[in-house]
Amino acid sequence: MSLSSPLFQSPRRVFSAAAALRVVLLFYGLYQDAHSPVKYTDIDYMVFTDAARFVSRGHSPYARDTYRYTPLLAWMLLPTAWRGLGPLLFSFGKVLFAVADLVAGWLLVRVLRSEYGMSEARALKYASLWLLNPMVATISTRGSSEGLLGVMVMALLWAITQRRIALAGVLLGLGVHFKIYPFIYGPSMLWWLDRSRTRTSNSLVEKITALVTPSRITLTLTALSTFSALNISMYMLYGLPFMQHTYLHHLTRIDHRHNFSPYNTLLYLSAARQQHGGIHFESLAFVPQLFLSAVAIPLVLARKNLPGTMLAQTFAFVAFNKVCTSQYFLWYLIFLPLYLPSSSFLKRPIKGISAALLWVLAQALWLHQAFRLEFLGITSFLPGLWLASLIFFAANVWILGVIVADVGGINNDSGPSSSSKKSATAAATATGGSGFSEQKLRVVAEYMKEVEEMQESS
Q1: SS3 99
Q2: Confidence (pLDDT) at 457
Q3: CA 437 to CA 113: how far, in whole Å?
Q4: Among residues 226, 197, 200, which one has the least CA distance to residue 213?
């Protein structure tokens, strides 16, 4: 769909279409839940709402078995425990998650315009990869809370790129409390901040001391303070069960069902042998995952392009995670509109189409094996499900390699917007003087429009 499409000429049209898509899915979900043995509502949503019901009665949310989340989520869903309006009130959480999708999309548009110098129409086009994505809309309207993480992560990216350091620290602390994985963005943001100082330093001592800057100190302290304050508050309210279920559980988590991870079969075997005191490899499975996502990728890429680095980090974190479900894909899909404009997947359409097909077909192969196991009762762990997991993992590793190569090939500090901003400044300077008169601004606008048209045609 081209930029000339009427849909992208107005934010109201794009967001109305995105909202309408989610409303249709919400009502369809009510129908399917009422008339089909296969429910539309995600099982996790039942866990969320059960926990909210316990909280409404003055109990701990962890009285609900398998609730592994911050109490904040149960508090947010308290209206689902109120009596009245039947299934409509029960769907409050789904509506909340769907609205979060839209807010995340709005933040995407802001980042695309401020950091990438895009026109409104072009920013809306790329943001529609999230806003009008049926997969994103389906997951949120089924009752998955990933949309809330999308808001937090996009708000975090916007705050750090706008140099609102304290706000970024608060959002980082909140995000890590809500879901552990956003902590991987901390090293990238610290490395990205004040990145020019170490480049101008000569000696090793100067380079080391240049790493300690007011911005980095502020980000670190505000993030740690927010994270600590939330955790201390929740611990005082709910005690050790809060720590066990929200954090410690994930170190030894075994979840072999609905799991795309290459660890899937090993987790299954580990669950069977756990009672015999075997080696609990699940406690060590996160080592290669964290090395890639929290150390190697930030060090290599963060100073080149922060949004692209965050995409690569998240993609690596999900691909190498010992538990990988469809909801986790949303963690990196939110960054896709920020990466694609300068990606080789768009510059070489055949490569992009091949990657998309490989990603989808590898999932389909795994789902076929999972269907045989879960619904037909055919034992397909070996070799079917295991091989399907390896194929999907290999596809993800190849895509990750392309992303890392693309981001690593950027030769400036702020991504696609940098060249546009420099070109615009040069165009304005060519009109004479350093002040931006109305005529100069018009020249800049025309030049930027030409640049966008050239990028679009390529």
Answers
A1: helix
A2: 46
A3: 22
A4: 197
Q: What are phi and psi of 223, to 5 degrees?
A: -65, -50
Give the residue carrying structure tokens 């911005």.
215
The token duo for 95 is 């509506």
String of b and e for 185-204 (b: at least 16 CB within 10 Å)? bbbbbbbbbebeebeeeeee
Is residue 242 pLDDT above 50, yes or no?
yes
Other beta carbons less than 10 A from residue 258's beta carbon? 15
Report helix, strand or coil for 400: helix
- Quote the tokens at residue 445: 């606008």
| Gap between the Cα atoms of 218 and 168, Å rounded | 10
- Contact (CB, 8 A) for 310 and 193: no
* Percent of all residues in the chain with a pLDDT value above 90, rounded to a whole number: 64
Q: Choose the weakest-confidence range: 192-201, 221-230, 270-279, 442-451.
A: 442-451
The structure tokens 């420099």 sit at 422
CA angle 154–160–165, rounded 5-degree value: 130
pLDDT at position 252 over 70: no
Sign of CA dihedral 321, 396, 301, 307: negative
Residues ≥6 apart with Cβ < 8 Å to 343? 352, 402, 403, 406
For 322, half-sphere exposure in the C-beta direction (CA atoms, 13 angstrom radius) is 22
Q: Which two tokens stand for residue 221?
A: 């302290």
409 vs 452, more confident: 409
Rounded mean pLDDT of 307-328? 94
DSSP conformation class of 293: I
Q: How far is CA 438 from the centre of its chain?
A: 40
Q: Which of 175, 171, 176 is nearest to 156 (CA)?
A: 171
Instruction: Measure the CA–CA gap between 232 and 22, rounded to whole angstroms.
Output: 37
- pTM for the model: 0.86
Give the DSSP letter string of 208-276: HHHT--HHHHHHHHHHHHHHHHHHHHHHHHH-HHHHHHHTGGGGS----SS--STTHHHHHHHHHHGGG
Residue type at 418 in one-letter notation? S
d(CA 145, CA 149): 7
Sign of the Cα pseudo-torsion (7, 140, 38, 86, in order): negative
